Structure of TetR family transcriptional regulator:
Amino acid sequence: MARNPERRAALLDAAIEVMADEGARGLTFRAVDARAGVPTGTSSNYFADRDRLLSEVAERIFVRLTPEPGSIDTAMAPEPSRELVVELMRWLVRRLSAQRSCYLGLFELRLEATRRPDLRARLTEVLRSDLDENIRLHLAAHMPGDADTVRLLYFALTGLLVDHLTVPGMHDERELDTLVETVVHRIVPES
């Protein structure tokens, strides 16, 4: 297997774009090579098989979706309150919207995981860990609500993002902000 980390990352980024545009079924080595602008056969030198490519795509998506160091601390600096949760959820929606291909790629991976037990196990582990970390941060910051509050926000905002990213124009940006505020006000208790 080839060992150039920059090229591997570029191939994975191309694979994410292929998944976002063509779905998991369109993810082939040839499609990745074409999207990355490299000679045919390049990606097969980096990934042993399609399962390995899918697994590494999942890892790359999570790397790209991880906030910059310190940004969470900065975002959570104000006094804990329901209004801070509104702002944090708006920040999250903006971040994920800016990484549209990654989030669409994650939707595709979720669907593909229903057919691939190894991918399902890895995706479950990573998503569960991410949710647990969000719960931990929420409770440690003494934000209003409990672990179930975070779970309900996760479910509601995941659904909102599915609509926002898959049916563009269903909600304009102003309406999206209002919906986020409504979701938070209905789920998060006043402090």
Notes: The chain is about 75% helix and 0% strand. The longest helix spans residues 117-140.
